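Now for my pick.
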Amino acid sequence: MPAITRDFTATTFVVHERRTLLLLHRKLNMWLPPGGHIDPHELPDEAAIREVREEAGLEVELLMTGSVLGNVRVLPQPYCILLEDIAPGHQHIDLIYFARVRGGVLNPSERETRAARWMTWEELDAPDISEDIRELGRRAIELCS
């Protein structure tokens, strides 16, 4: 049996005015929140913020913040961690964060996305939204509003 390869990724559900941002991924043709691979030597929370900036042009603050415990830094906690099957023998360990808009203007990356939409709770019911995106988008709206 061949070994499974796994990459660490960070995904951010961004909430603004009780809506969550989804991007129509150019390659996958799916509605997804901003996210991508965590770069070598990058912290997961930094990747979550960077991916939103790169893919959507927005500056965000994560719902969970870090802290200090004596001489040790406590990183912002993701809401959850998903194990996603990407291709046969390849998975993503996806750290899911929730965030609020802090600044910037929505300017989706044309290289990565075909469209961008702020989705309401009800709009997340659309048949082209996968169940995990629907459920996590609604949880983000609840917790960030």
